[in-house]
Amino acid sequence: MHGPAMSDWLLMTLCGVTGAYCLLRMRSGTEEERRTARAEAVMGFGMAAMAAPAAVFPPPVWGWAVYVVLFGGAALRALWFARRKGHHLHHLVGSLAMVYMALAMAPGSSAAAHSVPGAHRGHQMAQVSSGVPLLTGMLLVYYAAYVLRSGTRLIPVAATGPAEGPTGGGWGARPELALACRLTMGIAMFAMLLTL
Prior knowledge:
By secondary structure, the protein is mostly helical. It has one domain (4-194). 73% of the residues lie in helices and 0% in strands. The chain contains eight helices and no strands. The longest helix has 31 residues, at 134-164. The radius of gyration is 17 Å and the shape is globular. It starts with a helix and ends with a helix.
């Protein structure tokens, strides 16, 4: 386990642990918090599955279609709930980014990307000077900004959390851990987009 394989294992483990913590968060909080935790658990486990080292866990040929359907459905769900709560717009971007990555990493990806209406636009757009497709570059900028914003929000929460005492409800009700999970998934998404 050296080089890229090690980073695949670490990314898979990190996303899997984050997804598991999101499942724990589903046991407490308001309905909106539980809904958000469910969406984040799906994203965490999906990212873990997508990051699994292909040499050890070769994905089935139809596996990428499952990702497209799963995260396409998650995108529609996030779009539906985004009318009430703005954070679901982030889930929408994340789900669409997962669809994009699944199409880009699928066997015969250029044919797969052109077969889905609207998905080929990212491939046909102008490319930035490094050869990175414009859509990938835009997603990288979005996730870099998201990670920086989440990181700055985590610092004050972590600094004031212990002074307030336990919040009750156990590990699932800790807002700083939920924010750390979002930060972790943002970093993981950024890392996955870099591989495209």
